[in-house]
Amino acid sequence: MREIVAKKYVKALILALDADEFNIVSDEISKLAAAFGLDKFNYIIDSPIIDAKSKVEFLLTLVNDNKNEKLANFLMLLSHRGRLHLIPEIAREFEYQKALRDGKFKGLISGNIELSEAQKSELEQKFSKKFDVNVEFQTVKNEFNGIKIEIDDLGVEVSFSIDRLKAQMSEYILKVI
């Protein structure tokens, strides 16, 4: 539900921004979203003692472009509506809109299989060609016995599990016998 509300706020804000402002506001909102991981920060945002204007002034001290009137007005709107906690979702939606605009998406390759840089590059090229966008992968080694490729913003998940392959082969052999 929070994501739906965040999308509406982002859509309205994007309509008010030009291309340069879009990049600046996106970066600044990402910085604010990172601050929500701190307990003291959340205490200030949640405090009923601090008025909406003071909260916005505090938030603007955390960003580089604190003279940006559109960002200040946007934060004031969120504050008056009691929706400052939507900032992390708004930041994610901004990243998604930026990826759509630029045609650049980030994905994740995970598993216990070691990929060379050439293999990673080949996967990036093939997925980029398949979806007609620029895809960049990050690799993470974990305990998954196989390989899993995820591009969340495109809704793509591809996985190959060695354990599942073994189980299917055993099942097939038993059916044949």
Concise synopsis of the structure shown:
The protein has about 180 residues and is α+β, with helices and mostly antiparallel strands. The protein has 8 helices and 4 strands.
Describe the structure.
The protein is an alpha+beta fold and 177 residues long. Helix content is 61%, strand content 16%. It contains eight helices and four strands; from the N terminus they run ααααααβαβββα. A four-stranded mixed β-sheet has the order 2-1-3-4. β1, α7 and β2 form a beta-alpha-beta unit. The longest helix has 17 residues. It starts with a helix and ends with a helix. The mean pLDDT is 87.
What would the keywords be for this entry?
alpha+beta, elongated, single chain, 8 helices, four-stranded mixed beta sheet
Termini separation comes to: 52 Å
What is the typical, i.e. mean, pLDDT?
87
- As residue ranges, the low-confidence spans are none
Largest sheet: 4 strands, mixed
Q: Given the helix and strand composition, which structural class is it? A: alpha+beta
Number of helices: 8
If you compute it from the alpha carbons, what radius of gyration comes out, rounded to the nearest whole angstrom? 22 Å
User: Percent of residues in helical segments?
Assistant: 55-70%
Q: Count every beta strand, where a strand is a DSSP E run of 2 or more residues.
A: 4
Order of helices and strands: HHHHHHEHEEEH
Strand order of the largest sheet: 2-1-3-4
Beta-strand percentage range: 15-25%
Give the overall shape.
elongated
